[in-house]
Amino acid sequence: MTSAEQPATPAPRKRTGRRPGSADTRRTVLEAARAEFAARGYEKASMRAIARAAGVDAALLHHYFGSKDQLFLAALELPVDPRAVVEHALAGDRATVGERVAGFVLTLWEQPGVLDRMLALIRAAATTEQVAQLMRGFVTAELITRIAAELDVEQPELRAELMFSQVVGLAMARYVVKVEPLASATREELLPLLAPTFQNYLTAGA
Amino acid sequence: MTSAEQPATPAPRKRTGRRPGSADTRRTVLEAARAEFAARGYEKASMRAIARAAGVDAALLHHYFGSKDQLFLAALELPVDPRAVVEHALAGDRATVGERVAGFVLTLWEQPGVLDRMLALIRAAATTEQVAQLMRGFVTAELITRIAAELDVEQPELRAELMFSQVVGLAMARYVVKVEPLASATREELLPLLAPTFQNYLTAGA
Questions:
Q1: B200 CB near a chain A CB, below 8 Å?
Q2: Sign of torsion, CA B141 B151 A101 B181?
Q3: Which domains does chain A have, with CATH numbers?
Q4: Which of B109, B168, B189 has the highest number of chain A CBs within 10 A, making it the mutation to test binding with A?
Q5: DSSP string of B136-195?
Q6: Is the reported ipTM for this assembly greater than 0.85?
Q7: DSSP helix/strand/coil, B24
Q8: What is the pLDDT of chain B when averaged over all its residues?
Q9: CB contact under 8 A, A132 and B177
Q10: What confidence category does residue A21 fall into, taking pLDDT thresholds of 50, 70 and 90?
Q11: What is the rounded distance in angstroms from the CA atom of residue B128 to the CA atom of residue B33?
Q12: Is B116 in the A-facing interface, judged by CB distances under 8 Å?
C-alpha cells in the first residue's frame, strides 16, 4: 500500500469501548474479573470495577456475563484441566507419583495468572457458603472422582481429598499467611518434603 | 437467714445490662464476638451485633475492647496454649510424634467452640491482609519458633510450617469446603493417613 492509497481520515471508531461479545473482549473481561476477585475477595469485588478495568460498559457486562456469581464461575476457568493432573501426575510409575504431584503443584503456581485464580477461589470459598458449595461440587465431580478412579487403595476418595487438603493448606500458608521461611522456600527445598506426603496419601497400603 | 430477715423488696438492679468491666461479662462478650466472626467473617462482623448478642451497650463495648481489630485479637484467645502443643505432642518418643500431633489436632477440633474460633481465624486471614499479617506474626512467634526449637532436623522452621499448612488445609477441606467423604470421616479413619505426614515433616532426615 502506498501513502497515496491511505484514507485521508482514520476509519470511524466507536468510543464506547470494546464489543462485549467478541472472544477478545471475553478474555479481557475474565482477566479483569480474576484480578478483582483475587485482590478484593468474592464479597467485596465489584462488577463496576471489573467493567471499568476491562473497558466495557457495566450494563453490557451484566447482559453478557449475568450476575457476579456467574461471572465468578466463568472466571474460574481452572488454571489447568483436571484431567491433565490425572494424566500427567498420576500416570507412570506409582512409586514416584508423590514426587510428580508435588512437582506439578509447585510448577503450576509459578505459571502467570494461576496463583491469582487459586487465591480468589480459596478466599471466596472461605467466606461464602455458596461458593464453598460450588467448589465442593466441582472438586468432587472433576477432581476427586477422577483421581480416585486411578488409585489402587482403600478409600480412594478420602486419599484424594487429603492430597487436595495439603495443596490448599500449602497455598494458604505460603501465599496468603506468607509465613517465613515457607513463603520464600524454593521448589528444590519443598519438593523432597512434600513428595512423601502425596506419596503416602495416594499409595500407602496399596 | 430466716424469712423474717429477708428484705421486703429485692435489691435494686440496673436495667441497662451487664457491667462491661466484669470478668463474667468479658467472657460473654468474647463468646459473642467469636460466634459473630465465625458466622459472618471478619469484614462483615458487626460490633453492634456483638454488643447486642452479649447484652452490653455498644459504646461501652468500644470503651472496654477498642476497635474491631482489637476485639478480634482478644477473641482469638487461642483454643489451646501453643506451649501445650509443644509439651504434649512433641515431647516423648520421636518415632511416634506424627501420631500424637495428628491425634492432638483431630481431638482439638472436637472441643466445644474450638472449630468456630479456628474458622473465624482462617476466614479472616484469607480475606484481610491485616489479619493475615497478625496471624503471620503470631504463628511465627508463638508456634513455629517453639516447635522448631524442639526439632533435630535441618530447616526446622520450614518443617514446622509444612505441618501448620496441613493443619490449615485439613480445616479448609473438612470444615469449610466440606468435601465428602473427608467431612464425615472419623478420627480412626484419618489418624493412620495423617500421622505419616506429620511424622515426615517433623523427623524425616533427622
A1: yes
A2: negative
A3: 23-76 (1.10.10.60), 82-203 (1.10.357.10)
A4: B168
A5: HHHIIIIIIHHHHHH--SSSHHHHHHHHHHHHHHHHIIIIIS--TTGGG--HHHHHHHHH
A6: no
A7: helix
A8: 81
A9: yes
A10: low
A11: 17
A12: no
